[in-house]
Design a protein that fits this description.
Helix content is about 35%, strand content about 25%. By secondary structure, the protein is an alpha/beta fold. A hairpin with a 4-residue loop joins strand 4 and strand 5. The longest helix has 28 residues, at about 170-195.
Length: about 325
């Protein structure tokens, strides 16, 4: 696979000089120049509130992310956030296996998009509540990609916004079976594979509500809270096998369940105004924001991080 440009963003300043090893990078109003001894490269400086965008290639003395051999296995990869996560892994150069339950066309479209980014990608149907289904998919992914380096757990249903008192046992059981039992089943199936291949990582898409319980969202938050304990348990017990486990706590993201409930009128303008009061950045997140955190936690550059949470929520509840 050919190397592809990567992107870095820095705050816009009149002139900034950064040095790394033998490399020197100079930013100015006329653009960017990168010198690494015998070679000099130029790139465009794009100014604006986001700062300067730098496209760079692998092999320079600049920050890159790398991964173990194999693919990232994304459960819930056909959902709004899951697609964004899969896309960011592909942009970072990792092969991706997209798991879906019922959205076959969405999953296949996602795979087409990922392949266009230059990586190997595959789609796999799975009912995460069924042990045999999860084991089958694991075999398919290993057969396709030889190895799994990361499991991203993003499977979860769209749930009603109701109080705990209004929640029926059947509703609660469904959420627990998909989100909590599902993650355990996936972890149970993949841990022997990770051990056999010298390690691996889990990235759980949790909820920013783990720290600040959002009213009426118990069917989403409570199952994920159980998963936080499982992630810490895996981190503690499997660290000796070079297996890491971390969580990305997801805030309000303009995708998936948020957009569905907004379209239904469950999340109206008043709801948005009230929740904005709890978000210091005063805006909603994007799927790519979650994907960026997942990619970092799965990378070799995060090899000494385990049992931790990263809240990607605009500061929700601070």
């Amino acid at each position: 696979m050919p190397d592809r440009p990567r992107d870095l963003w820095f705050p816009a300043t009149r002139e900034t000089v950064c040095s790394a090893a033998d490399a020197e990078i100079t930013f100015s109003r006329c653009g960017l120049e990168h010198t690494d001894g015998n070679r000099s490269h130029t790139a465009r400086g794009i100014r604006g509130w986001r700062g300067i965008r730098i496209g760079y290639e692998r092999g320079t003395n600049m920050l890159t992310l790398s991964f173990p051999e194999g693919a990232a296995l994304v459960f819930g990869g056909s959902g709004g956030i899951g697609r964004g996560v899969a896309r960011e892994f592909a942009r970072a150069g990792s092969a991706v296996a997209v798991c879906y339950n019922s959205k076959r066309e969405v999953a296949e479209d996602t795979v087409t998009e990922l392949r266009a980014l230059g990586v190997k990608a595959s789609a796999h149907q799975v009912d995460v509540r069924a042990d045999e289904d999860v084991s089958r998919v694991l075999g398919e992914v290993v057969g396709e990609h030889s190895r799994i380096h990361t499991v991203v757990w993003g499977a979860g249903p769209v749930v009603d916004q109701i109080t705990v008192a209004e929640t029926t046992p059947a509703q609660y059981r469904r959420s627990i079976e998909i989100e909590t039992l599902g993650l355990f089943t996936a972890a149970h199936a993949v841990l022997p594979h990770f051990r056999e291949h010298g390690g691996g990582s889990f990235v759980h898409l949790g909820s920013a509500g783990d720290h600040w319980f959002p009213a009426l969202d118990g069917l989403s938050v409570i199952p994920k809270a159980a998963n936080e304990s499982l992630i810490r348990g895996i981190a503690k017990e499997e660290g000796a096998h070079n297996i890491r486990a971390n969580s990305v706590l997801v805030g309000v993201i303009e995708a998936g369940m948020f957009l569905e409930l907004k379209a239904q009128g469950v999340f109206d303008e008043e709801w948005e105004r009230e929740v904005h009061k709890l978000v210091p950045l005063k805006r909603w997140g994007k799927p790519a924001d979650i994907g960026a955190a997942c990619v970092f936690l799965a990378s070799n550059e995060a090899n000494y991080i385990t049992g931790q949470q990263i809240s990607v929520s605009g500061g929700f509840g601070v």
